[in-house]
Amino acid sequence: MKSIRSIIVTCIVLLTLVVSAVFFSLSNRFAHYTLEKSLESTLGNLADTVAAEITEQNEKQFKALRAIAALPYIKDSSNDFFERQKNLDEVAHADPTFIGLSITDAEGNSFKEEVNRMINFSERPYFKAAIKGQEYIYGPLFNKITNALALFYSVPVVNEKGKIENILFSAVNGDILCNTCKRIKVGKDGYPIIVDRATGCTIGDVEIKNVVNMQKMQEAASEDPAMAEFAEHINKVYAGESGFAVYN
Question: What is the rounded distance in angstroms from the CA atom of residue 83 to the CA atom of residue 85?
């Protein structure tokens, strides 16, 4: 028969093993929880950083357009339309920020020096918004004239009578958002992707081809059964939700 001492020692050893197992399990869970919260916080800060950069960039472009639209020569509708565009072309050529700078009439017509003819922009969303008095951002899109990505910004031109008879829009380098993604690292090899919630298109990625091709991750994920879980996460993002998820 085992001695009482032997039984007690055995019980203590078993109890120690149980406590160790429970402690290990709790430690594991706590470590996982802590890591998850840390990553969630990091991603949240990352989103704030990207949003701040985009907001700053947009405000910089709008500020420049507002200043140009407020110039007496530009907003005076009695001045020759083609001469006003000629002045804008000179500004665009002197400022590397701009790919192009254009003024349209109330019908959306604008003279484009590159093709030496009038082009109508009345169906473009940036014209429709600005002619109603709203500032607008559109893109980035692949510009066939310049053979590069371009972002479009537009503002109304309010004349001396307080009416909107023209709009002013600029085309700027559309690589801006891709460059933002390249500058920001997530861990060793990770990087952010910027998506336009209105269209679902990727507008910022280290792989610029995804922007040129107007990639829609939601569609790609939903069409592949193996990516069903990933599609679920993407749908939450498009719905405006934030959080943390792992996809393998």
Answer: 5
Intervals of CATH 3.30.450.20 along the chain: 59-174
- Local structure of residue 245 (DSSP, 8 states): -
What element of type H or E holds 165? Answer: strand 164-173
pTM of the model: 0.73
Phi, psi of 138 (to 5 degrees): -140, 135
Long-range Cβ contact pairs of 37-40 (< 8 A, separation 24 or more): 39/244, 40/243, 40/244
Q: Which of 113, 117, 101 is nearest to 155 (CA)?
A: 101
Pick the closest to residue 118 from 98, 104, 99 (CA basis): 104
Radius of gyration (C-alpha) of the chain in whole angstroms: 28
Mean pLDDT by 10 residues, the chain (248 residues): 49 44 47 53 68 85 95 91 93 88 94 84 95 93 80 94 94 86 77 80 86 80 69 74 65
Note whether 126 and 153 are within 8 A (CB): yes
Would you state the pLDDT for residue 41? Answer: 59
Q: Write out the CATH class of domain 59-174.
A: alpha beta
